[in-house]
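User: Second chain of the day. Same drill as before.
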Amino acid sequence: MATIIIFVGGIALVAGIILILASLWYRKPDHPSITGGGTVKHALFWRYKNFWEPKGYKLYNWGMILFAIGLILEIVYYSALV
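Assistant: Same format as last time:
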């Protein structure tokens, strides 16, 4: 059972990182944080979803979910060892 938890957690961590990195390909080039332009209003009120095209936003969300699951599984396993 412990081997399965480590294996699934490790795969989820790696898959999450890969999806997060893949989502960067779909960033919108006119976003103020990329171009260096914009105002405080853009920085404070720009919807986070508008940072990506829809496909990139989905990749980012799934990447974060998988990363979190993997991290939780690894923490649970290693905390059980202590």
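The chain has a mean pLDDT of 78.

User: Great, on to the next one.
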